[in-house]
Amino acid sequence: MTAAVPAPAARVSAAAAARAAAAAAAPARPNLFDHDRNGLRALFVQLGEQPWRADQVMKWVYHRHVTDFAQMSDIGKALQHKLAQSIDIVPPNTIFEKQASDGTHKWLLGMDGGNAIEAVFIPETSRGTLCVSSQVGCALACQFCSTGAQGFNRNLSAAEITGQVWIAARHLGNVPHHQRKLTNVVMMGMGEPLLNFDNVVTAMSVMRDDLGFGLANKRVTLSTAGLVPMIDRLGEVADVSLAVSLHAPNDELRSELMPINRKYPIQALLDACVRYTQRRPRTTITFEYTMLKGVNDQPAHARQLIKLMRKVPSKVNLIPFNSFHGTQFERSDETVIRAFQKLLLDAGVLTMVRRTRGDDIDAACGQLKGQVVDRTRRQQEFRRRLEGGAVDAA
Ligand code: SAH
Predict the structure, then answer these.
(1) pTM (2 decimals)?
(2) Which of 70, 124, 195, 372 could form a disulfide linkage to 150, CB 3.0–4.6 angstroms apart?
(3) Residue 336 CB coordination number (10 Å)
């Protein structure tokens, strides 16, 4: 086939397209952010280098936020050059960032294929928490979650997960062992982290590594909708805090709100939580419970919840529902939330109410929606439901 001669303006983009095509055809270079310490050491050994060189590079990247090998002054020029030819250090691309009036900071990060994900930093007096996404969208379709309504596209790579923390840490000038602004990471952004197990575990390893972000184990929290076998697997490989999205105190209601409950009902979930805590003494599980007006916020629900919480070393985090376009749910009234909390506290269940943060920039729990090119038809279904049309199951 003969290509038409391009117009001058198009010639530039044709050249760029040719370069992009060449880059795409070349074997992809590994991205440093895809590896934890062991992985990076192995990569250096493959390159014929000493593994401790990987440690040196990690310090530059994670402690000083340097991504150019040429600036790594304790590495010789020849090795700098070799590494630059062999390894990329590429964080996700920031499309925009925004700060809420309460200091909450949100990043929208561009992925391939028109997708975008979100990360949110929440400053508090004694700590700073980054809420990190694990997937582009989510397939679990929890009824009260806007990410669920967006559908699912793909898992994030380890680099895309670690990269979120790196971008926030660089923005905050965060250095391990100094007065740090970023002290905690919660895997509570878009996606179900246990459905992207390996990449999430690798990224959490960098978060907790002294050569990485240096966070204490218990300050890295994975939140799950309750994938029982994966909770057991997590218990075997990683020592992190576990949060479980419960949201209902009985199977009937939970299955309605969270379809995953049909596969892993409450008792099986609590058993997995008990096994998780048995592996590490003094650990408690945080149970998240979004307060939905007239749905799960009545005293009878509180009493059922109290009974469940007696079975596991636990604390409860009540989350006032954050609204989003098209949802049928409403936030419980403040007095109802406080009364619910009091019933739990009086029964000896440690219960906090999560303060809503960053809602003026849509950065609160369940409001993260990035931009998902949906592969699950979930968005389509959601829109149809919104319009009140019949849902076509085909
Ligand atoms: N998939 C994981 C993590 C993502 S959601 C999980 O289910 O745990 C993080 C937390 O925010 C979960 O507890 C989730 O149920 C809650 N959440 C989701 N939508 C919400 C909303 N609209 N308002 C308040 N909390 C919400």
Answers:
(1) 0.89
(2) 372
(3) 16
- Alpha-carbon distance 19 to 33, whole Å? 24
Q: How far is the CA of 147 from the centre of ligand 1 (A)?
A: 9
Q: In 3D, which of 193, 187, 255 has the Cα closest to residue 215?
A: 187
Q: Is 374 in the pocket of ligand 1 (CB under 6 A)?
A: no
Which has the closest alpha carbon to 165: 183, 138, 190? 183
- The CA distance from 111 to 91, in Å, is 11
Which of the following is catalytic: 49, 118, 145, 160?
A: 118
User: ∠149-153-155 over CA atoms, to 5°?
Assistant: 115
Task: Let me know if 365 is a catalytic residue.
Answer: yes
Question: Which residue's structure tokens are 């790594």?
Answer: 72
Q: How high is the pLDDT of residue 60? A: 97
Contact 137, 152 (CB under 8 A): yes
Residue nearest to atom 22 of ligand 1 (CA): 366
Measured by CA distance, the residue closest to atom 15 of ligand 1 is 245
CA–CA dist 74, 367 (Å, integer):
44
What is the CB neighbour count within 10 angstroms for residue 80?
17
Q: Is residue 206 within 6 Å of ligand 1 at its C-beta?
A: no
Q: How far does CA 230 lie from the centroid of its chain?
A: 16
**pLDDT (0 to 100) of residue 37:** 98
Cα separation of 229 and 335, whole Å? Answer: 38
Spans of the chain below 50 pLDDT: 1-12, 389-394
Query: Would residue 283 be called left, alpha or beta, if left means φ above 0 and alpha means ψ between -120 and 50 degrees?
Result: beta
Element containing residue 6 per DSSP (H, E): none
Nearest protein CA to atom 20 of ligand 1, as residue: 366
pLDDT of residue 17: 57
Separation between Cα atoms, residue 185 and residue 168, nearest integer Å: 11
Check residue 392 and give its pLDDT: 36
**Known active-site residue 118:** yes
